[in-house]
Write a structure and sequence with these properties.
138 residues; alpha+beta; five-stranded mixed beta sheet; 3 helices; globular
């Protein structure tokens, strides 16, 4: 398992900019630098072009700029800990040594709620076979 601490987390809605999308993300440092993950999805449903290119799902990117579409099996957000289990091929695509990433969230409650909202939205987008199991605190 890969572990680290995030001091920045949240959700951003990019609307009215030509390509509308939602992003949830976290990073090691408050300024957005260091280890990090972002999950993005379009606002509109996937079209034929997205389906043909395999881009008909959410995408996950890391601080190295590596990106995969789909590939997340399980997401758990309990208290201040986020655990993501990737498919082995997605972990490889992101350059991860292990398919399980656990992040301690050293952020305030508002940031956790924003992150939770963003993860719920982004991980519910796209082809059904790519949707992970979500296990979040109430």
């Amino acid at each position: 398992m890969i572990t680290h601490v995030a001091r920045s987390a949240g959700r951003e809605d990019h609307l009215g900019e030509g390509f509308d999308y939602i992003m949830a993300g976290l990073s090691e440092h408050e300024d957005g630098s260091g280890r990090g993950l972002t999950v993005q999805c379009a606002v509109e449903p996937p079209d034929a072009g997205d389906i043909a290119t395999g881009m008909d799902s959410y995408c996950v990117s890391n601080e190295l700029g590596l990106t995969v579409y789909g590939g997340v099996r399980y997401v758990r957000l309990q208290r201040r800990t986020l655990r993501i289990q990737f498919e082995p091929s997605a972990a490889e695509g992101l350059g991860l040594d292990d398919p399980v990433v656990e992040v301690t969230l050293a952020v305030d409650d508002a940031a956790i709620q924003q992150l939770k909202s963003g993860l719920q939205r982004t991980f519910s987008y796209g082809r059904e076979r790519s949707l992970p199991v979500l296990d979040f605190d109430e």
